[in-house]
Amino acid sequence: MKKGILHVIVVMALLAACEDEYFPEGFLPYQVEYMLTNDSSRTWLVTGWEVNGDPVAMASCSDSLRLGFEVITNDSIASYELRYNADCSQFDTTSIGALTASGSNSFTDSLYFERSNGTIRSMYVKELTSSRLSVTYSLNGSLVDQYLVPEN
Fold first, then answer.
1. Do the domain assignments include residue 86?
2. Which pTM value belongs to this model?
3. Which regions of the chain does DSSP assign to beta strands (E)?
């Protein structure tokens, strides 16, 4: 009987240890912002993405996408998308908005981007380390998943 109870306790402990956590707990919002910007400016390369679960082909340089985050002042971070133009000779830059990491005492799970017109777009963070970023967001009625690595 004791062996059975011990077995159940061990199994429950293992199940609890396998709980899905998409990013390390305990980060403060400013620490998340630091990882995204590397304390000044950082560009993240999209290495893969899916729209509604279907992979998006990234066959040429014009298909490549980068997300950039740059500290403007101590409490202001600009975010933007970088895509090559049609002949892949230079980047076209599109502002995403001013970045804010969610939470007050600890990072919760989202990044908010406020545009100059006041609209706010959010991205749910599935994974965040200093070497990987994985986000999900809604765009024009589609669910987009992006997987990124830092370029600098």
1. yes
2. 0.78
3. 41-51, 54-55, 65-73, 76-84, 91-101, 110-114, 120-128, 133-139, 142-150
Partners of residue 67 on adjacent β-strands: 44, 81
Q: What is the pLDDT of residues 127-145, one digit of tens each?
A: 988 899 999 999 889 999 9
Residue located via tokens 């290495």: 47
For 92, the domain range is 22-150
pLDDT band at 4 (very low <50, low <70, confident <90, very high): very low
In the chain, the number of structural domains is 1
Residue 77 structure tokens: 């971070």
Domain CATH number, residue 114: 2.40.128.20
Compute the distance between CA of residue 146 and CA of residue 125 in angstroms, rounded to an integer.
10
Q: How many residues does the chain have?
A: 152
Contacts of 102 (CB under 8 A, 6+ apart): 29, 108, 109, 110, 111, 112
Q: Which two tokens stand for residue 83?
A: 């895509």
Structure-token pair, residue 47: 């290495």
